[in-house]
Protein: Deoxyribodipyrimidine photolyase
Amino acid sequence: MSTAIVWLRRDLRLADNPALHAALAAHARVLPVYIHAPEEEAPWQPGAASRWWLHHSLSALDESLRACGARLHIVRGPSLQTLQRLIESCGAAAVYWNRLYEPAALARDRDIKQSLRARGITAHSCNAALLFEPWQLATGEGSPYRVFTPFWRSALTSMDAVACTPAAQRIDMPPMPTCTPLAALDLLPRLRWDRGLAAHWQPGESGAQALLHAFIEQAVHGYKAQRDYPAVTGTSRLSAHLHFGEIGPRQILAALREHAGNDRVGAASSIAPYVRELGWREFSHHLLYHFPHTPTRNFNPRFDVFAWADDGVHAEALARWQQGRSGIPIVDAGMRELWHTGWMHNRVRMIVASLLTKNLRLHWLHGARWFWDTLVDADLANNTQGWQWSAGTGADAAPYFRIFSPVAQSAKFDAAGDYIRRWLPELAAVPAPLLFQPWRDAALLQRTGYPPPLLDLAASRAQALAAYQQLRAQAAR
Structure:
């Protein structure tokens, strides 16, 4: 009776799980395993909010596996050595897993595959996380894409080939010794700052499906018009579920197509605006795979000599930005939403990032690291691409001279002030447009205790533009 191990990582679901599906098709018994070895992902091991989500996602997966007659075997330790011990314990002839694409994970998985095959163990990896492998799409010259539009145009030509695998119904496990209790992984915070996260999220496969169906029924057809307004539920909020693999992009695409009557994903499709955002996720992974240095270094090397502000001079400003005390309401609302829920609306992410990297001229890594620790959807590909885009240093990036005006952005995308008032209750009674720039009334600041702005928006914008002009002059020499 043949036995296989399915090594689960960020593919924490039973439906459309190619590795699990392949193992069940080829073997009589399957051992679902999660190996906790965060140090192998250094320097980007999961942050605090991600660990909270992981705890609850693993718990939900174990519950789903038990309904299929199995359970999740949790082990702490180095991945290769742990797999080797498990192979000996249960007599496994094969190990299956779904691929990860971060540089550290790619190197580790390559070494593990070689080591297992050298011992005569079948080692098989699958794609569960993406519509297309990062190496699957290339320019006419065979090089990786650096601009989104031609990348997505190429992707759309192959979109109809995407299909899902069925969910597991029954899993027979080999007998195994006692595994590590989930609580022993110490994923939850000891000081319980996570109550806001628990109130806003349901980690796990069923939570992902519930959000997807709510989005399809209530928001997908208005997505293009509503996605930029942080006070309304205009987005899917599936990013964390996608990162942990509680749902896959193929499942989302299939559900959207079914709802739209098998509408093809063309430019005129009713679901195209949202599917295009899935395309940006694909593009981010494409970039990370082909340019693995970008989580810590500029994609555009011209910015290696850019005049970023001195960290020491702006240490207090950085702390105020992180804590939602910048004195700029839309920025503070976003940072407080992030701290309370582990998530921030995408339009607001761009606003807070523009302030940090352009008005303050602090290196984008300060923001990337803060988001990494505080976001439940912290994903290395998306986080890197998002921050480099905002800073103007990345592929297909916002031009450096595009500097978001927090006041104008508030007036346009939160005109009634509902989002700001929700997260800044001290300003709840302030009418718009004063709500967007309360520093214009010194008495208001004194009365409410809301801080004055940490910088002059107009002056800091001019200084940022001057620094950019200096960079251009250096490049022209």
